[in-house]
Amino acid sequence: MAKSNIIATIDYGQIAANARSIIRFTETPLMAVVKADAYGHGIVPSAHAAIFGGATWIGTAFLDEAIKLRQGGITAPILAWLSPPSEDFRQALDWGIDLSVSSLDQLQAIVSHGDVIGCKPRIHLEVDTGMTRGGALEEFPALVGAIGKLIDQKRIELVGTWSHLACSDEPEHPLNQQQGERFQAALEYLKAKGISPGIRHIANSGGVIHFPHLYYDMVRSGILLYGYAPSTGFKGCPNVLPVMELSAVVVLVKKVPAGASIGYGATVRLFEDRYIGLIALGYADGIPRRLEGPMQIWCTIKGEKFPLIGRVSMDQITVDLGAETTVQAGDRAVLFGGDKSATADDWARAAGTISYEILSKIGARATRVARVH
Ligand SMILES: *Cc1c(COP(=O)(O)O)cnc(C)c1O
Fold it and tell me: Does one domain contain both 202 and 257?
């Protein structure tokens, strides 16, 4: 096999340590959120690491992701919260995966599969408290009525009741308070109908940091597990460290004369003779094209910083190595996440996005390699 040019080195031990840190901070059971290939970190090993660190639940968006985890040996309870009506819910039952329910139609589709094979689907009732994505809103009372009947008929198990915060990375936003109140009201509605809500969960990583009164019975954390805070400015508890180091090989080093332009669009022109390094990764690998140089972002080679220069191509970027250089073809450039290198937050800030997007878009050409201590 050819040697990997692009390597995402993943410190799974650090995922475990981050999970421990979140649990110590919240003193609440943790659902490790591993959707989107664990934000780019590799879904199966990341889930195992989080469980090793004390997480007792796993959360995914899609049923496919949950099944992949079961096939990878994860036995902890798993919730998959995003299912189209055409989903093969039979699979969820076969693999013992909990499903989220936001509507009567969804509930009906899930229950009909359960009836066929004579097994009780495990569901989590999602309440829309103001995020306006998933979750029952107008239908909530009718859905609760239907769930109550199905519980009495022993045709479903209501394992949990949950919601999602829209602004938890902005603690001053008034929606946080409103969502908390609406969630509480939904729980009281269930109680008035004599229905146990099961495990109550609403806090994501922002909630973990800012809203202890919203921990309830479990917190769902993703980005903190991977060592980043939901918003870039945040420093503080729980103490977590980045998990992914992204590096790529320097393919070519060459001297370029003053006056030469660099890359697509000839957007940069050299004022003096410089050494330019060509690095083998580009926007197809998740480097935002907006990080066009000069001086927006840097990489480190042998511990020294070098700025990206010129546009990001699909498979390659160029860096300014200076008027003299010791860098050689074959050296490795660390893009982010290493010692003395940039962070995914630095990249996010420069590209006008969030670390979540930077991490989860690191492409399939980056070989995931476990860091060995
Ligand atoms: C992605 C997601 C989370 C985790 O969010 P973080 O901000 O990464 O902690 C939690 N719950 C749901 C429903 C999600 O979609």
Answer: no
pLDDT digits (tens, 9 = 90+) for 85-132: 889 999 999 999 999 999 999 999 999 999 999 999 999 999 999 999
Q: Which amino acid is at 140?
A: F
Catalytic status, residue 189: no
Q: How confident is the model at residue 158 (pLDDT cuts 50, 70, 90)?
A: very high
Active-site entry in 35, 216, 226, 275: 35
Task: Please state, in angstroms and rounded to a whole number, the distance separating the CA atoms of residues 79 and 211.
Answer: 23
The residue segments making up the domain with residue 36 are 12-226
Q: What values do phi and psi take at 269, rounded to 5?
A: -125, 135
| Residue 226: active-site member | no
**Would the CB of 222 count as within 6 Å of ligand 1?**
yes
Say if 143 falls within a structural domain. yes
The count of structural domains within the chain is 2
270 and 204 housed in the same domain? no
Per the domain annotation, does 5 fall within a domain?
no
User: Is the CB of 18 within 6 Å of ligand 1?
Assistant: no
Asked if residue 234 belongs to a domain, the reply is no
Cis upstream peptide for 242 (omega within 30°): no
**Rounded to whole angstroms, how far apart are CA atoms 320 and 313?**
16
Cα distances (Å, whole numbers) of residue 253 to 16, 250, 327: 39, 7, 7
This prediction has a pTM of: 0.96
Q: Note whether 314 and 219 are same-domain residues.
A: no
143 and 98 together in one domain = yes
Task: Check whether residue 301 and residue 184 sit in a common domain.
Answer: no
The residue whose CA has the least distance to atom 12 of ligand 1 is 164
Task: Sort 315 into a burial class: Cβ within 10 Å, 0-12 / 13-18 / 19+.
Answer: middle
CA–CA separation, 203 and 28 (whole Å): 11
CATH of the domain at 278: 2.40.37.10
List pLDDT tens digits, range 276-291.
999 999 999 999 999 8
